[in-house]
Write a structure and sequence with these properties.
The protein has five helices and no strands. It is mainly alpha-helical. The protein has a single domain, classed as 434 Repressor (Amino-terminal Domain) (Orthogonal Bundle). Helix 1 packs across helix 3 and helix 2 crosses helix 3. The radius of gyration is 11 Å and the shape is globular.
C-alpha cells in the first residue's frame, strides 16, 4: 500500500472517531507534525506506531492497513 493511501486511511479513521490531529498526537505521545506527516504520506510509519494508532482509534490493525484476511 502506498504511503498516501495509508495516510488517507489514518485521517479517515481519525475523523470518524472524532479525534483532531492534536488529540491523536497527544494520545500517541508524538508531535502534531508527526501525525500530519503520516496523513500526508510524507513519513512512513513503523508497524509499532501503526498498531498504536489502530489501538487508539479502536480499529483493527488489519483494517487500518487494509490487509485482507483470508
Amino acid at each position: 500500500m502506498g504511503d498516501a493511501r495509508l495516510g488517507n486511511r489514518i485521517r479517515s479513521f481519525r475523523k470518524l472517531k472524532g479525534h483532531t490531529q492534536q488529540s491523536l498526537a497527544q494520545e500517541l505521545g508524538v508531535s502534531l507534525s508527526f501525525v500530519g506527516s503520516l496523513e500526508r504520506g510524507t513519513r512512513k510509519p513503523t508497524e509499532p506506531i501503526l498498531r498504536k494508532i489502530a489501538n487508539t482509534l479502536q480499529v483493527e490493525y488489519e483494517e487500518l492497513c487494509a490487509i485482507n484476511k483470508k
